[in-house]
């Protein structure tokens, strides 16, 4: 069966052997052929011979001998076919070759055995007795180890047996035509060897046209597979008639109408078949066969010679490879298969670059009279509840409940802008009951009248004269009407319930089918002790009230309310719009997963439910076309929660028709009647699962286990069946005499149910969208429809993704294309889930279509598109999961890490957007706790990102092993450390914690910006920041362990040790080992929270009485080591290493500036005092105070003069100077940041004693920035330089704000021209700034202390805004051009060696840039820590 196999046929070449058609007397060989496979790498030889020895001894009859040199454990999957064609049949078991087993009663499978003769390694001999009526043996070959199938032309090997009635001829005919009995010319059919392979895209579109010509019937997976094979056979038949591929493509391009015409044109043509002698074949065809038949009349006519004209005696021509029995199910044999090839296109063309503002900002809203009132109610604290309801004809009703103080009465205020006379018909409620009671006299207004019967009161609306009711729109005053009812504060009432009626009683208004309700108690903001506090906004509360307080409530009510609320969202009533759309999605998903009731105290006819579904889904499609960004994404996901509706009346009618057609009585107490009553009363999505369960029951001959199994798959158990308003309590009865008819009828009925309830069902969606989709998508869609259940998952995924790409531009045009897009997304995800686990490293081939699938699904898809591009640029072996070199694996790992971050970003955004909303709605509506807690996680796991993550796991393991990276990356090594292991979610959350005993932290996330907490002796995480990130430097500074672990099992094992004591050490192999120890051992350990420098002190330098000094004055006590080292490099470096022009504001300049700002100095002193007293908010106040100070004019003048003399461009105007001086103040203010405070405190320094010099330079516009460590900081190897390099500014390395790895490489100091790459860059973004920017660099005396790494504590600030921009390393020469990369890396390595030598051999941390001309500039150097 070609449907479930890789497309190995494309590699076959068929060659005739000598004596291929020789007579039996020529060695007993009747037929022989050799097939080449895998680009002539292997062969399959086939012979039909007289006699058989497979059972031992000579036997009469014939045998087919198949030999091959394909390696591996092979199976022959085979069956016999009669001379007249038709389906496969099996010979008697007595003639089966040894080891043969039966497969699904439709085929035989025989293992190959070693071939003792010749060079061909494996052999199978299949005997065929003379008594057999078979004319052909059909087979395919399967590799049991890889799951690969070998076939020919997309079908089976079709071998003639040379029995009576079958002529074996191989020689060509002298002419291409012959004559029939009447002397008419007959065209000669081409042989299969003379026709080309059927291209996959043509087979797909042909299959789609056949399905479309048949009316898009609902088909099972097996029927769809057979339809695809029939399409291949039909194309082969036309090719054999002499039609070329171009002619057939022209038919497919023209569509289904031309297809029907073409088939009709070919009808009645007569052909002769060379393989069967000059015997006449009539070709007569039918189009639009009835769905469900075992064979296709069109295929029968073209390929099997079905003579529909009795006057034309004809024999059947040889069928092309007939569809073999299906291979094992996809669940049993899913495998990657061979790529059909995604079209080459620039992934960046898929980026959604919508710069459109939010809809609410551009929507030309018609002002609504009540809008100022409901906005005021939303903002006022005294308003404890409010809602706005539509009254139709653009009129609205605002209901608000107010309570100004604890002892003040409740005020219930109703305001409307309707021009009609309106009366409030109302009563009161007590407790949770829904019954009305007539209000007491104390609640009645002067115009209220009690309604006879004691159940209600009526109060007419009166014109509102309050100031807030003075509403003017378009120059006219809009009259408002109002009622205000006061309820005592000590009331025992729970709510006012009411309806509205017109003054003449001719019309009534309610909240859907329920009463309006104004609650008199403030809603709870939290879910009880220990539960998170979640504020419900107006939209959430509107939904919660409808779900909880409505008496009669069904899917119909929910869907109609959702449609109304979507209108409100796009009109800007609920903002932010993204949150509003997420809220509606959460609500509808709770509904779809049965967490909200589908029916309560109300019955809905299918016709009415269908209309509500259709209204909502069209509204979702309409809203989708108007939105942008995440709001648009939530709208698309809303469509996954609702069926399309439509002709739902057929749900009600057709079940009765089925019963009547099959003469099944409407007898109470039978399953069929109970199902009928359930459908008649209130159809729901459950009905799809029930119908499928009944079909399974029928197909298995009445197996009740199959019935319950399918129900379970749909989440339906006995309790749910019995919970329906019209319960199903009886088990189905099997009607053996009606089985086939019932299967046919219920398959058709299943299509009706899916069309109503299952929006994203592929067949239903394809059928509904057939009139809207572009012709370019039909070949892909046809392939997916025919092959979606195939075990050969890669080409199915590729075709689905290609089809989605074709639909991408028209999704907003039609609801049906959106449903089809969702269905195709599900096909891709499902295929990945089936294949990822069983494909090992080969799952890498799935990555490209999965990434493209994800890019088509998310709105903010820029990073995914860059990931896709980077993946496409990798070596083919990496992308196929083959054997790769270390360099290829390192490149692949960089892309994998970038993809992992992108997936984590999608997960985080989804969780952050949905979790609070799902908690608020879920808890208020009584959803199951697990459904509430796992809501966001389940959305992620059900989305396309999760499929990528499944494959990524397998890919990463293979690449990490090949790259020799191991499971650990040690950033700060230690010989051994012992401490209590504590698991924390984020390191920044515990950065200010002081641990009173040695502690090893296992952090889920680190950024690199954090300070190691006091008392911590080790930090472990899945994240690996740059080697020069603040955290990395600080851990090495205090001799604390810092390592990243990529092994999920190891992380889980460590997490299990939470709260226990462990001893950890770094190994020579670059890994981390650990063991559990007891508390006593931990207490006796030398680990003490890191080795901190002792007896440190800071001497406050004196001001040199200058605000600016040039490089000649960069001396000790005037500026810091950063400036001094730079000046000290002058005249000591090769000419090709540039130093930037520099000027500095020396130590004491800040204090001098404060002397000119007396009030600022006083405020700053108070803030510092507060910090010393333990109030750390004083740090933020101190920074704000400094940013507000005025820089003395003298400082500006001296700085300007210094810049001129140093050759630094001076700010061109006052605005530019404003930016410059603001940058200066920002550096001064960074003395008071939290990180610096914590770091100085832990070594016994006073943060306020730090003096800050500021180094000023012009930014050298970098192509690349680098950081050099002249001693490898990871290994401590003094003979090796370690370098990190990124595109753009070095802030991407040193700031810790840009996640991912830089290009990391080493170079031995005695071999600087041979750098070795450690890691390829995986950062997604770089830091960039304008060409004319200055940079003000911190240069504190806290960075000069021996044994203390003060570097990185304080800020460097550019005058122009520094921006983050996406970088594409896959196209950057530093990655894409190996020779160029080697030159740049070698040049930078030489810089490090030269500077270290110039500074007396002292190890250095060096920062510099490579400009657009590849010139190198060193911007700073400092002693390495």
Quick gist of this model?
The protein is an alpha+beta fold and 1425 residues long. Strands 5, 6, 7, 8, 11, 12 and 13 form a seven-stranded antiparallel beta sheet that branches.
> What's the N-to-C terminus distance?
67 Å
pLDDT averaged over residues: 82
Number of strands: 53
Helical content (DSSP H or I, runs of 4+): 25-40%
Spans with pLDDT under 50 lasting ≥5 residues? 1-27, 55-59, 163-186, 274-332, 356-363, 523-533
Shape estimate: flat
Class of secondary structure makeup? alpha+beta
Number of helices: 43
- Rg estimate, integer Å: 39 Å
Q: What is the percentage of strand-forming residues? A: 15-25%
Largest sheet: 7 strands, antiparallel
Structural notes for this entry:
By secondary structure, the chain is α+β, with helices and mostly antiparallel strands. 36% of the residues lie in helices and 21% in strands. The protein is built from 43 helices and 53 strands. The strands form eleven sheets. Strands 5, 6, 7, 8, 11, 12 and 13 form a seven-stranded antiparallel β-sheet that branches. It has a seven-stranded mixed β-sheet with strand order 33-37-36-35-34-38-39. The protein has a seven-stranded mixed β-sheet with strand order 41-53-52-44-45-46-47. Helix 24 (847-857) packs antiparallel against helix 25. The longest helix is centred in the middle third of the chain and has 39 residues, at 886-924. The chain is flat. The model is unreliable at 1-27, 55-59, 163-186, 274-332, 356-363 and 523-533 (pLDDT under 50).
């Amino acid at each position: 069966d070609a449907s479930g196999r890789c497309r190995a046929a494309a590699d076959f070449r068929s060659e005739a052997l000598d004596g291929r058609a020789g007579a039996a007397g020529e060695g007993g060989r009747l037929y022989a052929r050799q097939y080449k496979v895998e680009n002539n790498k292997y062969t399959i030889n086939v012979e039909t011979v007289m006699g058989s020895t497979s059972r031992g001894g000579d036997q009469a009859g014939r045998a087919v001998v198949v030999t091959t040199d394909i390696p591996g454990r092979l199976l022959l999957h085979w069956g016999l076919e009669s001379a007249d064609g038709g389906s496969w049949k099996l010979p008697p078991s007595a003639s089966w070759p040894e080891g043969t087993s039966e497969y699904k009663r439709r085929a035989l499978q025989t293992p190959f055995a070693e071939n003792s003769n010749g060079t061909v390694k494996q052999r199978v001999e299949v005997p065929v007795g003379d008594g057999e009526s078979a004319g052909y043996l059909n087979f395919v070959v399967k590799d049991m180890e890889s799951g690969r199938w070998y076939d020919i032309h997309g079908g089976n090997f079709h071998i003639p047996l040379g029995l009576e009635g079958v002529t074996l001829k191989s020689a060509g005919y002298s002419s291409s035509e012959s004559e029939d009995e009447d002397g008419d010319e007959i065209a000669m059919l081409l042989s299969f060897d003379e026709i080309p392979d059927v291209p996959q895209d043509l087979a797909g579109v042909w299959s789609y046209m056949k399905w479309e010509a048949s009316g898009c019937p609902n088909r099972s997976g097996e029927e769809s597979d057979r339809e695809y094979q029939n399409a291949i056979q039909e194309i082969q038949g036309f090719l054999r008639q002499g039609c070329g591929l171009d002619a057939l493509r022209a038919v497919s391009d023209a569509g289904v109408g031309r297809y029907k015409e073409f088939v009709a044109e070919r009808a009645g043509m007569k052909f002769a078949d060379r393989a069967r002698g000059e015997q006449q074949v009539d070709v007569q065809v039918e189009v639009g066969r009835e769905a469900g038949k075992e064979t296709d009349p069109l295929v029968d006519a073209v390929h099997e010679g079905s003579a529909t004209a009795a006057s034309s005696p004809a024999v059947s021509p040889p069928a092309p490879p007939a569809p073999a029995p299906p291979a094992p199910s996809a669940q049993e044999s899913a495998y990657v298969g061979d790529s059909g090839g995604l079209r080459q296109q620039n992934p960046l063309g898929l980026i959604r670059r919508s710069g459109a503002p939010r809809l609410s900002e551009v929507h030309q809203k018609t002002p609504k009279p009540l809008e100022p009132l409901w906005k005021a109610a939303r903002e006022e604290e005294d308003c404890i509840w409010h809602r706005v309801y539509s009254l139709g004809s653009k009129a609205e009703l605002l209901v608000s409940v107010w309570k100004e103080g604890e002892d003040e009465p409740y005020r219930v205020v109703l305001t409307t802008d309707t021009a009609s006379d309106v009366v409030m018909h109302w009563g009161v409620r007590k407790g949770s009951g829904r019954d009305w009671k007539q209000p007491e006299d104390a609640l009645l207004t002067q115009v209220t009248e009690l309604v006879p019967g004691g159940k209600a009161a009526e109060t007419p609306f009166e014109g509102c004269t309050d100031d807030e009711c003075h509403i003017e729109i378009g120059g006219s005053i809009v009259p408002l009407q109002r009622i205000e009812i006061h309820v005592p504060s000590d009331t025992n009432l729970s709510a006012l319930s009411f309806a509205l009626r017109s003054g003449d009683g001719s019309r009534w208004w309610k909240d859907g089918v329920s009463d309006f309700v104004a609650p008199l108690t403030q809603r709870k903001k939290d879910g009880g002790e220990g539960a998170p506090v979640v504020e419900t906004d107006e939209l959430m509360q509107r939904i919660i009230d409808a779900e909880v307080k409505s008496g009669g409530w069904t899917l119909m009510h929910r869907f109609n309310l959702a449609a109304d609320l979507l209108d409100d969202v796009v009109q800007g009533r609920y903002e932010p719009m993204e949150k509003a759309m997420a809220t509606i999605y959460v609500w509808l998903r709770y509904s779809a997963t049965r967490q909200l009731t589908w029916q309560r105290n109300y019955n809905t006819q299918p016709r009415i439910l269908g209309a509500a579904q259709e209204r909502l889904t069209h509204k979702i499609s309409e809203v989708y076309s108007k939105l942008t960004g995440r709001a648009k994404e939530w709208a698309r996901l809303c469509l996954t929660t609702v069926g399309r509706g439509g002709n739902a009346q057929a749900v009600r009618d057709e079940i009765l028709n089925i019963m009547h057609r099959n003469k099944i009585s409407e007898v109470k107490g039978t399953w069929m009647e109970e199902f009928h009553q359930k459908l008649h009363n209130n159809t729901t999505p459950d009905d799809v699962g029930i119908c499928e369960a009944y079909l399974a029951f029928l197909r298995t001959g009445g197996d009740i286990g199959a019935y319950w199994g399918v129900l379970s798959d749909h989440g339906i158990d006995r309790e749910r069946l019995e919970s329906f308003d019209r319960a199903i309590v009886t088990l189905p009865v099997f009607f053996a005499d009606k089985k086939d008819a019932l299967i046919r009828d219920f398959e058709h009925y299943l299509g009706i149910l899916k069309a109503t309830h299952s929006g994203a069902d592929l067949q239903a969606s394809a059928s509904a969208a057939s009139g809207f989709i572009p012709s370019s998508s039909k070949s892909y869609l046809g392939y997916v429809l025919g092959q979606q259940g195939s075990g050969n998952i890669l080409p199915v995924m590729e075709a689905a993704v290609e089809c989605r790409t074709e639909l991408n531009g028209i999704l907003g045009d039609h609801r049906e294309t959106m449903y089809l897009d969702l269905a195709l997304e599900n096909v891709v995800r499902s295929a990945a889930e089936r294949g990822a686990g069983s494909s090992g490293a080969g799952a890498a081939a799935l990555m490209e279509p999965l990434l493209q699938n994800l890019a088509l699904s998310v709105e903010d898809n820029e990073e995914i598109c860059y990931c896709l591009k980077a993946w496409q640029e990798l070596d083919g072996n990496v992308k196929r999961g083959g054997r790769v070199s270390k360099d290829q694996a390192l490149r692949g790992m960089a892309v994998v890490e970038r993809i992992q971050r992108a997936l984590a970003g999608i997960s985080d955004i989804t969780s952050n957007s949905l979790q609070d909303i799902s908690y608020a709605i879920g808890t208020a509506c009584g959803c199951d706790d697990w459904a509430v807690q796992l809501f966001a996680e389940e959305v992620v796991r059900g989305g396309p990102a999760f499929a990528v993550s499944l494959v990524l796991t397998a890919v990463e393991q293979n690449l990490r092993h090949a790259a020799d990276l191991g499971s650990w990356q040690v950033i700060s090594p230690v010989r051994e450390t012992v401490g209590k292991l504590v698991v924390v979610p984020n390191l920044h959350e515990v950065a200010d914690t002081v641990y009173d005993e040695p502690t090893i932290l296992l952090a889920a996330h680190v950024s690199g910006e954090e300070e190691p907490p006091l008392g911590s002796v080790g930090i472990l995480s899945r994240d690996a920041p740059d080697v020069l990130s603040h955290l990395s430097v600080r851990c090495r500074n205090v001799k604390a362990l810092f390592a990243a672990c990529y092994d999920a099992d190891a992380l889980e094992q460590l997490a299990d040790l939470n709260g226990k004591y462990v001893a950890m050490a770094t190994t020579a192999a670059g890994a981390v080992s650990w063991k559990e120890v007891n508390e006593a051992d931990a207490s006796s350990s030398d680990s003490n929270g890191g080795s901190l420098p002792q007896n440190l002190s800071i001497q406050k330098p004196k001001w040199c009485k200058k605000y600016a000094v040039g490089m000649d004055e960069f001396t000790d006590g005037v500026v810091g080591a950063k400036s001094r080292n730079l000046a000290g490099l002058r005249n000591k470096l090769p000419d090709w290493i540039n130093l930037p022009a520099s000027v500095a504001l020396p130590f004491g300049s800040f204090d001098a500036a404060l002397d000119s700002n007396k009030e600022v100095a006083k405020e700053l002193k108070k803030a510092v005092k507060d910090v010393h007293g333990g109030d750390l908010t004083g740090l933020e106040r101190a920074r704000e105070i400094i940013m507000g100070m005025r820089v003395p004019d003298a400082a500006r003048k001296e700085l300007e003069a210094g810049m001129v003399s140093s050759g630094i461009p001076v700010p061109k105007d006052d605005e530019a100077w404003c930016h410059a001086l603001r940058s200066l103040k920002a550096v001064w203010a960074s003395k008071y940041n939290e990180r610096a405070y914590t770091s100085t405190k832990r070594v016994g320094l006073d943060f306020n004693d730090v003096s800050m010099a500021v180094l000023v330079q012009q930014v050298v516009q970098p192509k690349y920035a680098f950081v050099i460590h002249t001693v490898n900081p990871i290994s401590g190897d003094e003979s090796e330089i370690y370098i990190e390099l990124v595109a753009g500014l070095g802030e991407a390395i040193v700031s810790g704000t840009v996640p991912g790895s830089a290009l990391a490489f080493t170079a031995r100091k005695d071999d600087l021209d041979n750098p070795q790459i450690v890691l390829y860059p995986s950062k997604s973004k770089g830091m960039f700034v304008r060409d004319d920017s200055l940079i003000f660099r911190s240069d504190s005396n806290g960075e000069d202390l021996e044994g203390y790494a003060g570097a990185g504590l304080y800020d460097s600030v550019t005058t122009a805004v520094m921006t983050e921009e996406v970088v594409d390393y896959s196209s950057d020469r530093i990655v894409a051009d190996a020779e160029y990369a080697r030159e740049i890396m070698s040049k930078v390595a030489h810089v490090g060696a030269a500077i270290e030598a110039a500074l007396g051999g002292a190890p250095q941390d060096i920062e510099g840039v490579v400009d657009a001309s590849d010139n190198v500039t060193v911007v700073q150097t400092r002693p390495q820590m």
